[in-house]
Amino acid sequence: MTLQGSLLIGQQAVTGSEAEIYAINPATGEALAPNYRGGNHVEVDKACQLAEAAFDHYRETSLETRARFLETIAEEIEAVGEALTERGVAETGLPQARLEGERGRTCGQLRLFASVVRAGEWLDLRHDPAMPERQPLPRTDLRQRHIALGPVAVFGASNFPLAFSVAGGDTASALAAGCPVVVKGHSAHPGTSELVGRAIQRAVAKCDLPDGVFSLLFGSGNEIGQALVANPHIKAVGFTGSRRGGTALMATAHARPDPIPVYAEMSSINPVFLLPEALKARGDKIAEGFVGSLNMGAGQFCTNPGLVIGIKSAELDAFVTAAGEAVKGSAAQTMLTPGIHDAYQNGVSTLASKSNVKEIARGQTGDSPHGCQPGLFVASASDFLTDEDLQSEVFGATALVIECRDSDEMQRIAEHLEGQLTATLQMDDGDLESARQLLPTLERKAGRILANGWPTGVEVCHAMVHGGPYPATSDSRTTSVGSAAIYRFLRPVCYQNLPAGLLPEALQDNNPFNVSRLVDGKREG
Amino acid sequence: MTLQGSLLIGQQAVTGSEAEIYAINPATGEALAPNYRGGNHVEVDKACQLAEAAFDHYRETSLETRARFLETIAEEIEAVGEALTERGVAETGLPQARLEGERGRTCGQLRLFASVVRAGEWLDLRHDPAMPERQPLPRTDLRQRHIALGPVAVFGASNFPLAFSVAGGDTASALAAGCPVVVKGHSAHPGTSELVGRAIQRAVAKCDLPDGVFSLLFGSGNEIGQALVANPHIKAVGFTGSRRGGTALMATAHARPDPIPVYAEMSSINPVFLLPEALKARGDKIAEGFVGSLNMGAGQFCTNPGLVIGIKSAELDAFVTAAGEAVKGSAAQTMLTPGIHDAYQNGVSTLASKSNVKEIARGQTGDSPHGCQPGLFVASASDFLTDEDLQSEVFGATALVIECRDSDEMQRIAEHLEGQLTATLQMDDGDLESARQLLPTLERKAGRILANGWPTGVEVCHAMVHGGPYPATSDSRTTSVGSAAIYRFLRPVCYQNLPAGLLPEALQDNNPFNVSRLVDGKREG
C-alpha cells in the first residue's frame, strides 16, 4: 500500500492540520515522503471519545474474541510483508535482519498476550463464599475479578520501531487487559507506524470490534502528547523514552483532577560487576561479550551496559585493554535520528572532557552522517561517588569502567547507584560470597539481575521484569515486557452478594472460564 | 501499664521536643493525660534510619518467622486487656462493644496476614526454564519473585483507633510484605496508639527481629507527616483520612527526587441505588436498613451511605418518609473529636442552607458536647448534576436522597459520580435489567458493588476491595482491606541465569516454600 501521511482515528484516516513531521533516513540524511500533518486537541478529543465509547464493549469481549484480535493483529502485520521492514530500515538506519527479528518479536509478543488472555490468570478471580451461620455476624458472598482501567495512551519509542512502538508491548498488554489504545506515534518512524496502525485497523474491522479500540496520532512537539495524557477519558499511560519526556508526562498525569498512573520506562546505565575470579578466569572472553552487547543496535537499547565496575588489578587492566581493542575495531553503526546522534556526540564529548575520566578507546568513525563512534572510558570509584555527571546515561555505544580499590568500594558503588533496569554479575564459583554480599543491594536497585550474561536482549516471557526503581521507571511495581505487563492496566472490583443474573460471567459458580481461582484463600484449578 | 507519653523508636521510648498533643474525651470534653510531646525531623530520621537498617534482614526472614511475628503482635495486643479498650473508649467516644469488636477485627486481620504470608501467593513465583536448543537464539533460565518495597510510612486514621491505626490493615499488610513500618499516630488517640505500639515493640523483641522493624511517632500539625513521606528511606505510604490530607501527601511523595507510591484512602459518599421493584416490595425494610447503616459509628465510616438515588414515585416518597421517621428517632452519638464534630456541623449547615436541598429530618441532639445529630435531606437529580456542592462528603450520619425523573436520569447520576469505595443496589428480580444497565458504570466508579446489603461493615477476607477510583483512593489498582492489600508493598525482581547458590530460596528448583508457581506460564501447585 501507499503511505497516506494520515492520522488513524478509529476506522478513519484523517489529515491533520498542524505542523508537519516527516522521517529522515539517518543513513543518508534524505527526507522520506510522505509528510504527516500533526493532529491537535480536536483529533485527541475525537480519538479519546471513540476509545471511551468502545471501552465498555471491548472490556467485556470474551477471552477468545480478545485473544483472536491480538493474533489477527500479528497476522495483519506479517501480511504487510517486506514493505514494513524496508520502511523500517529506511526510517531507522537499523539493518534489515534486525527489523525482521523485531517483527518476529512483536508478533510473538502479541501471540503471547493472546495466550495470557486465554489463560485468564490476570482476572485474579477470588471467591469468599457466604457464611450465613458465622458468629457474631454472618458473612455474605464476596467475589473479586480484575477489570480494565480504561482507554490507555501509548507513546511509541524511537529505538524499537516495532517492538516498543505502535503494536509494541504497551499496546499489546493494554489491549489484552481490555483497554482501548490511543497511540502517539514516534516522529522518527511515522511510515512504519502508519503501516502497523493500518494493520491494527484491519484487525479491528475483521474482528468486528468497535472503531475506537485503536487510534494513531502524530504531531510535532509535545502538545499532542500532553493533551493526550490530560484527556479525561485516558486512564493510564505507557511510555518508553527519555527521563525528561517521562517526567513531563508524570507531571501532567499527576496534575489532572483525577491523577492517573504513568508507566514510563526512562533511563538506565545497567551496571555490570566484574567479580575477581571471573575476571581472572576469562577476562578476555568477558571483554568480548561486553563489547558485543555494548555495540548491539549502536548501543541504543534501554539495557545497554553503560557501566562496568571492577576491582583495580592486573586482570582488570587486561580486561580494559582487551575491551579497548575491541572498541577500536568496532564499526560506526548509523544511529536512529540526527537528534539522537547529536545527543550522543554531546554526551561523549562531556565525558571525554572531564579531567577525572580517561579515554581508553574510540571506535571507527565510518561513512554514515549519523554514525555512532563507540567509546570506552575509565574513572575511579571515588570520582564516580562524588561526581554525578559520571552516572548520566550516554544513549549509544559508550561505556565507563569504574575502578574500585576493593570489594567494599564496589559495594559502595552499588549502593550509590540510581534505580536501574538491570544489574549484571560476571562471576565464577569463587565469587559466590562476593555476589551474595552484593545481591541485596542489587535487588533494591534493579528490576532484573543477571549472572554471566548481558543485559541486552530482553526475553518476552512470564518471568521477565523490564522495570526497576526510579528513574529506570516511574513505577517499580511493574514490568513493561513480559506477560506480567498486563497487570498495569487492571484494577480489582469486588462483588458482594450479587444475584447470579447480575454477576459477571467470569465469577459465576461453575467457573465458566475454567480459570485458576482463590477460594477462601486457597488456590483451586 | 502506665502510659508514658512517649514516641517509640525501635525498642526505645523517647520524649519529643516539639509542641504537645493530648487526647480529649469527646463525650465529656475532658483532656486525657499524658501529654505527648511531638517529634521532629530528628526522630523521623532516626526511625527511618533504623527501618532502613532493619530492612534487608527483615525482608528475608522466613515465611514462618514473619507469620509468627504477626501472630505475636495479635497476642500482645490481646494481652493488654481492658486497659486498651477502656482507653479507646475514652479517646474516641465509641462504645466499649465497638472497641472490643474492633480489637477482634484487628487481631483477626493480623492472623489473616500471617496465613497469607505462609501461603506465599504474594511471592508470585514464576519460572521460565532455559531452552538451550531454541532457534534462532537460546533462552536462558529466568525466574521471578516479589520483594518488599522498603520501609513504609503509615498514618493512623481517626475513625478506627485499632483497625485502621497503629496495628491496622496498612501496618499488617506492610509487615507481611517484609517492609519495616514507621507509624505517624493519630493525634486523637495517642494513648490507644502507645498501648498498641508497645505491644508491637514487645512482639519485635520476642521474635528477635531488628529494632527498626517498627516505630511510632507523634506530632501536632503536618510537619512530621510531611517529613516522614519526604524521608529518602521511606518507599511507600499508607494513609486513611481526608482528601485534603491525602492529596497533600501525594504532592510530597510526587515531588521527591524518587517519587514513591501513596495509598491514600480518602473520601467516598457511597451511593445507594433504590431500584423500583425493590422499593415497591420492601421500601420500609430498606429504609430501616439504610438508617441503621447511616447511624453506625455516628456515620464516621469511609463506607457510610451518604447518597441515596431513586426514581420519583409514591414508593420513593414513602421510603423518604419512613427513613425520615427513623432519623428523627435516632440518638446523637458522640463523634470522635471536637474537630470532626465541627466539620460535621458545618457540612450539615451548608447542605441545609442550600435552596435546592430540602431538609426531611434531623435526629436527636442528645447531651454529648460532640453529639452527631443525624440528618436526612432531599434534592433533585437535575440539581445534583449541576451543583457540585451536593456531591461533597459530609463525614457523619447525614445523607442526601436524590430524586430522578426516570431511569435515564438515574443512569446520568451514576455517570456523574466521582470515584467511590462502594456502590449499592437495592434490587429485586424485576430490577435485573435496570441493574445490568447500571453495572458497567458502577464498576468504573467503585471498588466494591453490593446488592441488597449496606456498605458499612467491610469484611476482612481475600475477595474484598476497599479501594476505588480517585478521589475514593489515590490508586484504584489496590485495596487497603483484605489479603490483596499486601500487593501494595511489593515489586517484582527477575533473576536471569543465576547459579543455584545465589538464587533466593523461594526460587530454588525444588520449590522449598511449596508455593503455587507459574512455570512457562502454566500454574503448578
Automatic annotation (TrEMBL), chains A, B:
Listed name of the protein: 2,5-dioxovalerate dehydrogenase
What highest taxon heads this organism's lineage?
A: Bacteria
For this protein, the record's InterPro entries field holds:
Ald_DH/histidinol_DH (IPR016161), Ald_DH_C (IPR016163), Ald_DH_N (IPR016162), Aldehyde_DH_dom (IPR015590), Aldehyde_DH_Superfamily (IPR050740), ALDH_KGSADH (IPR044151)
Per its record, what are the GO molecular function terms? 2,5-dioxovalerate dehydrogenase (NADP+) activity
Pfam families in alphabetical order: Aldedh (PF00171)
Recorded catalytic reaction(s): these are: 2,5-dioxopentanoate + NADP(+) + H2O = 2-oxoglutarate + NADPH + 2 H(+); 2,5-dioxopentanoate + NAD(+) + H2O = 2-oxoglutarate + NADH + 2 H(+)
Q: What is the lineage of its organism?
A: Bacteria, Pseudomonadati, Pseudomonadota, Gammaproteobacteria, Oceanospirillales
Family listed: Belongs to the aldehyde dehydrogenase family.
Where does the Aldehyde dehydrogenase domain start and stop, copy by copy? 17-467
Q: Which UniProt keywords apply?
A: Oxidoreductase
Q: What is its EC number?
A: 1.2.1.26
Would the keyword Oxidoreductase turn up in this protein's UniProt record? yes
Q: What is the organism of origin for this protein?
A: Halovibrio variabilis
SUPFAM superfamilies documented for this protein: ALDH-like (SSF53720)
